[in-house]
Each structure stands twice: as C-alpha cells, then as structure tokens.
Automatic annotation (TrEMBL):
The chain crosses the membrane at residues 6-21, 33-51, 91-112. The lineage of its organism: Bacteria, Bacillati, Bacillota, Clostridia, Eubacteriales. It comes from Ruminococcus hominis. The keyword Transmembrane helix applies. This is SpoVA/SpoVAEb family sporulation membrane protein. Keywords: Membrane, Transmembrane, Transmembrane helix.
Length: 118
C-alpha cells in the first residue's frame, strides 16, 4: 500500500503542477518556487510530517519535500544558534542533496556529451 500511496500522491502533485502550467501564465521557475515555499509553509504548520508519513516518497521527492527540508534545517539551526540560524540552517540542510545533484549532473555530462540547442 505504501507504493500505491506514493504513486498516486506524487502523481497528483505533478498533475496539479501541469494544470498550473497549462491554465495559467506562470513560468515554470515561479511554479517551482511556489512548490518549495508551500513545502516550507506546510512544515511550519506541522502538516507536512503526517502528509509525508502517509505518502512516503510521493511527498518527499517532489519540490515540496525540498522546501520542508529547508524549513527543518532552519528550525534546528535557530534552536541551536539563535537568529543567525535563519541564514545558515537552509544551507546546511539542503547542501547534501544540492551537491549530489550537481556532481551527478556533471558526471552525466561527461558520459553523454550534451550539445547546445540551436
């Protein structure tokens, strides 16, 4: 049942994003920012953890999960370092995933030799 919940929740999130892209004039970058901010707000309101427990990877893999990760990092850093944690918490929480994406993207560019579009 965990796989089914992850599949349909992740699919629903992607479908909602596709509807936003098709029906509005919002650019994809703005929609991605909206998802990250929504994940952070849901984490702040303590709604994201039960949602993630139910949906598993369907909730943690999309950009909503990244926003929640940033929020959790900021929250822990503020508890530990005070106001300075507002600035450093998001960097430390999101650093591993961001670094992995950059490294693996660079390795993939070596393997597949990408070409610029004309």
């Amino acid at each position: 049942m965990d796989y089914i919940n992850a599949f349909w929740v992740g699919g629903a999130i992607c479908a909602l994003v596709q509807i936003l892209m098709d029906r509005t004039k919002m650019m994809p970058g703005r929609i991605m920012v909206l998802l990250v901010c929504s994940g952070a707000v849901l984490g702040f309101c303590n709604l994201y953890e039960p949602f993630q427990t139910f949906a598993g990877a369907g909730a943690s893999v999309p950009l909503l999960g990244f926003g929640n990760t940033l929020w959790q990092g900021v929250k822990e850093a503020v508890e530990k370092n005070g106001l300075l944690g507002c600035f450093q918490g998001g960097f430390t929480a999101g650093a591993a995933g961001t670094a992995a994406a950059l490294i693996f993207g660079y390795i993939a560019s070596w393997i597949f030799e990408p070409k610029m579009k004309k």
